[in-house]
Amino acid sequence: MTASSTLPRSDRLFFTFNAILSSAAIAFIAFILLRKTEGAHAGLEFLPALNACFNGLAALCLALGYVAIRKHRIFLHRTCMLSAFAFSSLFLVGYLVYHSLYGDTKYAGTGALRAIYFAVLISHIVLSITVVPAALTSFYLAFTRSFARHRRLNRVFLPVWLYVSVTGVVLFFMLRGSAPESTAGASQADSAPAQIPEK
Questions:
Q1: What is the pLDDT of residues 159-188, one digit of tens each?
Q2: pLDDT at position 37
Q3: Least crowded by CB within 10 Å, which of 35, 77, 129, 136?
Q4: Are 137 and 153 in contact (CB under 8 A)?
């Protein structure tokens, strides 16, 4: 008997839905990030800073949610985790909007800082791919009261999600700090996959 055949029907339906939705989301993000842009300017230079705030708020909610569940404050934990997902979603929307208009931003730093920037960026990108499917799975397990599986998943996933959120803010400041003074205010300071290509 296969492992999948032992899952309840509701689990199989959810995991199928999650796989389809996550694959579609990743494909759409890749399309936005890889397509050519015309360098349009729509007065949205403030979005990188706003997106960094969303990442910071997501990290704060994750930390508060962890503390809340350790204190058995279930409602506060649930509220914090849903808020973290909302802030992460707002970051993603804001990044895609900004990137679709402005395209990639070149990291201007050199030496050791350049190596650190790309090491952090690559780890951020790779781990961020897991956030949507793992967060949806975590919520599903919680709302179906599969708390043992919920805890097992989040022993691994919570640190990953927190890392992605915190490094999003770190990359914002690293990219902003590397830009020349004349362009620092308008630099794309998000921590998104499309910052690897340097044009």
A1: 999 999 999 999 999 988 776 654 444 444
A2: 66
A3: 35
A4: yes
Among 67, 53, 65, 77, smallest CA distance to 189 is for 53
Spacing of C-alpha 96 from chain mean position: 12
Contact between 52 and 172 (Cβ < 8 Å): yes
Give Cα separations from 171 to 120, 121, 129, 191, 193 (angstroms). 8, 7, 17, 5, 12
Read off the tokens for 3.
């492992």
Q: pTM of this prediction?
A: 0.81
- CA 164/CA 130 separation, integer angstroms: 10
Rounded Cα distance between 159 and 138, Å, is 13
